[in-house]
């Protein structure tokens, strides 16, 4: 099976005035369709930069990024916008919900911009929030808010779900429940999921682990038998 995601010698250089920061220095790796890929590495290793390029939120300086046969590094602004809109779901560390909209309205906001989407109530039910749909974010716990964010991402029926430190703001048990939800969703829907974290305990849950160091890929390993979340500890 050919790669669903392929990074080929991707470089990202940020310039501010005279100063150049090389956030990615020639990164190459592939991810297969339906895999859960965990990207780990120390702070500053380039994980978020890589995820932002993968999600069409940032552009690369040189190299190629091919997703599902399309070279997104050649995309213009409009193509990137529709790629973000239709193909990618995002889950961030701090949920990024709109505070004056209910859980249901937050999900509707995202699904409204998609031709083909899951109904908001159904998406919230799939993350176990059928009872809390009419609550505002401030009336929900951190774990529940992250569930809303996941429902919002899934409602778009994305090809690819990108998560940047999805459990970074959650306590241990809640974090595990969120990871289980991500693992179950990937398994049941065949969705490709990329999770960025500095917690190397999460490597066990992945089909593929990409270890990053100083803007480069240090190693890529495959897990034949990923560990169920229940058995992962940190
Ligand atoms: N917009 C930007 N402008 C300038 N430099 C940036 C920008 N974004 C990231 N960098 C730099 O690129 C490098 C990689 O940053 P990145 O955010 O990708 O790291 P990270 O692995 O996600 O770290 P963390 O675990 O702390 O989130 C860092 O040196 C960072 O300071
Ligand atoms: Mg980061």
List the bound ligands: adenosine-5'-triphosphate, magnesium ion
Kindly provide the radius of gyration, computed on alpha-carbon positions and rounded to a whole number of angstroms: 17 Å
Beta-strand content: 25-35%
> How many strands?
10
Question: H/E series, N to C?
Answer: EEEHEEHEHHHEHEEE
User: Which structural class do you get from the secondary structure elements?
Assistant: alpha/beta
Strand order of the largest sheet: 6-7-8-3-9-10
| Number of helices in the DSSP assignment | 6
Write down the overall mean pLDDT: 95
Provide the low-confidence segments as ranges.
Answer: none
The major β-sheet equals: 6 strands, mixed
Question: Which range best describes the helical content: under 10%, 10-25%, 25-40%, 40-55%, 55-70% or over 70%?
Answer: 25-40%
What spatial form do the alpha-carbon principal axes imply?
globular
Question: N- to C-terminal separation?
Answer: 34 Å
Explain what this protein looks like in three dimensions:
With about 230 residues, this protein is of the alpha/beta class. About 30% of the residues lie in helices and about 30% in strands. The chain is globular and about 50 Å long. The two termini are about 35 Å apart. The structure holds adenosine-5'-triphosphate and magnesium ion. The site of adenosine-5'-triphosphate has 12 residues, from β2 and α1. Magnesium ion (MG) binds next to α1.
Task: Provide a quick synopsis of the model.
The protein is α/β, with parallel strands linked by helices and 234 residues long.
What descriptors fit this protein?
globular; binds adenosine-5'-triphosphate; four-stranded antiparallel sheet; binds magnesium ion; single chain; 234 residues; six-stranded mixed sheet; alpha/beta
